């Protein structure tokens, strides 16, 4: 599975091919051998030496590194594939029941804003409780089952609307 990094506005696929004796990465389909010399903030990429300075900026939902090399500063960020899919996928507008059961509690009401990963309803099936979370940021449009109501497998339980842009 490839990791995706965004560097200066372009997304690159990076896959670890091997870790020892030296790190071998596949970057956008090309193999590169990475070695770490004894100097801090230095790398050897395909036997060419690079020195750099880095700084991290942690925000609530993303981590960005700033790398300075050769007199230029580059912004490097991890691309969360779930966020990329959610941003472009209308199928994330509904939350479906993974199994038949009953709603235990409703945590969000229609009209409330929800962030990806936030629990909207808790369900129970065969004495197992499961929190169903938003698959993307948005606004709860409909909660289709109230606490105590039953449902079938794959039944839509919640509908989301896009978050207001502003």
- Helix % is under 10%
User: What pattern of helices and strands is seen along the backbone?
Assistant: EEEEEEEEEHEEEEEEEE
Average pLDDT across residues?
Answer: 81
Strand order of the largest sheet: 6-5-4-3-2-1-9-8-7
- What is the number of domains? 2
Estimated share of beta-strand residues: over 45%
Taking all Cα atoms into account, the compactness measure Rg is: 22 Å
Count of helical regions: 1
Total number of β-strand segments? 17
How would you characterize this protein structure?
It is a single chain. With 166 residues, this protein is mainly β. The protein folds into two domains: 3-79, no CATH class; 91-161, Beta Barrel (OB fold (Dihydrolipoamide Acetyltransferase, E2P)), CATH 2.40.50.100. Helices cover 5% and strands 55% of the residues. The protein contains one helix and 17 strands. The strands form three sheets. Strands 6-5-4-3-2-1-9-8-7 form a nine-stranded antiparallel sheet, with no helix packed on it. A four-stranded antiparallel sheet has the order 10-17-15-12, with no helix packed on it. A hairpin with a 2-residue loop joins strand 8 (63-69) and strand 9. The longest helix is centred in the middle third of the chain and has 8 residues, at 81-88. The radius of gyration is 22 Å and the shape is elongated. Mean pLDDT is 81; it is low at 85-90.
